[in-house]
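Q: Here's a chain of 384 amino acids. Please give me its 3D structure as tokens.
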Amino acid sequence: MSGPYKRLETQVVHAGDPRPRIDGAIEMPIFQSATFEYRGEARYDDVRYLRLNNSPNHLALHAKLAALEGAQAALVTASGMAAITTTLLTVLCAGDHLLAQSGLYGGTHDFVTREFAGLGLSAGFIDADRPDTWKAQLKPNTRAIYVEAMTNPLLQVADLAAVVEFARAHGLVTLIDNTFASPVNFRPIAAGFDLALHSATKYLNGHSDIVAGAVIGRSDLIERIRHKANHLGGTLDPHAAFLLNRGLKTLVLRVRYQNDSTLRLAQFLEAHPAVTRVHYAGLASHPRHERARRLFTGFGGVLSFELQGGAARADEFASRVRIPAVAPSLGGVHTLLTRPATTSHSGLTREDRLRLGITDGLLRLSVGIESTDDLIEDFTQALA
């Protein structure tokens, strides 16, 4: 970004905020107004109206998020799933085909597998680690390819460079869910992706107090997605927009601390005799550790692990920890523990979960900003 806001630490604080400041306010005010005076706008989508995603709160967020991802434009939505579904329904039309990474977040997987057929769409799932197999899945009507920076909950890292190369060779729009990495650890637009999607509920906001989504990327695509969102109505409300703007200002500090803390916890768990496996790309034992080192500046704040004793032992451990809350979601200041088979991936059949490697006893840990030493001590007593 031109001007004084060149680096991420400065962009999260200042990018997008109006200059001059509104009546001198240091923080962006909440514009709790559904409608605004008509100023001669020629197009429906440019009329100032809350549902049309163009209140001052929206516009400030759009500029800030575009700066953070190094993109041309951005759009915020009422939830991460609103961002995902609206984007897919924009880049795909009836009769089109999508290539999607196997092992997607449960909500995305359900939308693709349960809703696509009724919309005249189809999808094929690819092993994102094996580019040599992708061409066999390609169809004349394939229009886009969808992957995740890090998968939930196994923290797999796809061959993202190959995704971009394959898409360019075959004229596909590239979409990546960058929620787990955040712009602090990975900037997909610079890596060649067309669109980056976020559940802003997670790291971007970082305080577990709102639900929001974002899609960031090429201006021509964002404009089309905005028009679709205006009709579907998944608009972020002004107060949530204010909280997201505020949460973003500590994004770099939070995520870098969480990177360091999560790596220490992963190393502790990997060395513990009660733990049979740890999934975290920051560990040298991770099968794609070297790839992750090349792609990311940090390995994120989420890990997953399995204990000897399966689901029963996992539930016992969850009942014994004192600091983490046993709750779904991730990316906030609180450490959260969940068993994906009962939460994020409960919509999949047990057979589908096991095929993906999600066992009944798998635990996912979202590390907050508490003392790492306190967390290790807590886990030590819970594992005893």
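Q: Can you summarize the key feature?
A: Residues 251-271 form the longest helix (21 residues).
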